[in-house]
């Protein structure tokens, strides 16, 4: 497959315009469209992306494995393995960076995601904390290395057992938080790409991204509605009783729709998760 340049990777603005992703009916309170031209969603082989950095779903040895990890090592060639041997492994929740060699990208960032529900993850503060750290540490390394674009694989959603919906929510929240933490730094990161290889991961991101990053028109409509509601509340804060006393507060309408459940992964191998013991599976694919 020919390398895919950054100009051919659609942004959220492009995807909303083409209706390839749809707005959500339940955007989060802190949702924003501010970064929609900086964020992309694509389903393809991450080894084909001709951008500054791609993030590998590595194991703690950094010596390669199956899945995305193995594909990246095969495409990069033996020099990548040589560099990884010199890094002396990597802790779960952390990341390390190398050159990309034969890959069309410039750098490979090796992030070690957690095994879902493992005892070691619980001791370290929870698998959610560790997975989020993979994304923020990778962004830190990319920024420090002068990378202006970065693509993430769906970390920990393979045999490490992380449900795709939960992983996507954590990843998107971590990236959004990193961008909002330092606007100057965020302005230098021209593109953050969520790159899925499996359909289950693509669907998960397609569901969660609109909750965090709605189209600009949806965000404006929500803000205008909130402003109008606040203005009305200030003008008539309480309804009046028959005796003329302002005692009964004006309450919002009762919700008529049940909240949707989190997306569950398709065909998630529960048996594999049950067999994963703490400290095992170092060379398994992620």
TrEMBL record:
Q: Where is the composition biased (Basic and acidic residues)?
A: 220-233, 269-286
Source taxon at top rank? Eukaryota
In what residue span(s) does the Macro domain sit? Answer: 26-213
Q: Where is this region: Disordered?
A: 212-286
Q: Which Pfam families match?
A: Macro
Gene3D superfamilies from the UniProt entry: Leucine Aminopeptidase, subunit E, domain 1
What is the protein's given name? Macro domain-containing protein
């Amino acid at each position: 497959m020919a390398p895919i340049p950054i100009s051919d990777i659609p942004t959220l603005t492009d995807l909303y315009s083409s209706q390839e992703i749809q707005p959500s009916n339940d955007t989060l309170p802190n949702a924003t469209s501010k970064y929609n031209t900086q964020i992309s969603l694509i389903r393809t082989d991450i080894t084909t992306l001709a951008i500054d950095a791609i993030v590998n779903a590595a194991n703690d040895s950094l010596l390669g494995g199956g899945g995305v990890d193995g594909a990246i090592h095969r495409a990069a060639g033996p020099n990548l393995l040589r560099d990884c041997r010199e890094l002396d492994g990597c802790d779960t929740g952390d990341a390390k960076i190398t050159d990309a060699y034969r890959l069309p990208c410039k750098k490979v960032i090796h992030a070690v995601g957690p095994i879902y529900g493992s005892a070691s993850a619980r001791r370290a503060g929870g698998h959610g904390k560790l997975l989020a750290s993979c994304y923020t540490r990778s962004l830190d390394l990319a920024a420090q290395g002068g990378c202006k674009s970065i693509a993430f694989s769906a970390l920990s959603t393979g045999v490490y057992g992380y449900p795709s919906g939960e992983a996507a929510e954590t990843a998107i929240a971590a990236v959004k938080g990193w961008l909002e933490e330092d606007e100057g730094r965020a302005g230098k990161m021209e593109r953050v790409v969520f790159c899925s290889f499996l359909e289950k991961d693509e669907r998960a991101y397609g569901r969660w991204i609109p909750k965090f990053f709605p189209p600009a028109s949806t965000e404006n409509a929500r803000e205008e509605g909130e402003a109008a509601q606040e203005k009305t509340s200030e003008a008539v804060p309480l309804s009046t009783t028959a005796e003329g006393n302002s005692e009964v507060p004006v309450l919002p309408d009762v919700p008529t729709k049940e909240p949707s459940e989190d997306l569950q992964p398709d065909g998630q191998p529960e048996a594999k998760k049950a067999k994963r013991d703490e400290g095992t599976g170092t060379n398994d694919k992620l």
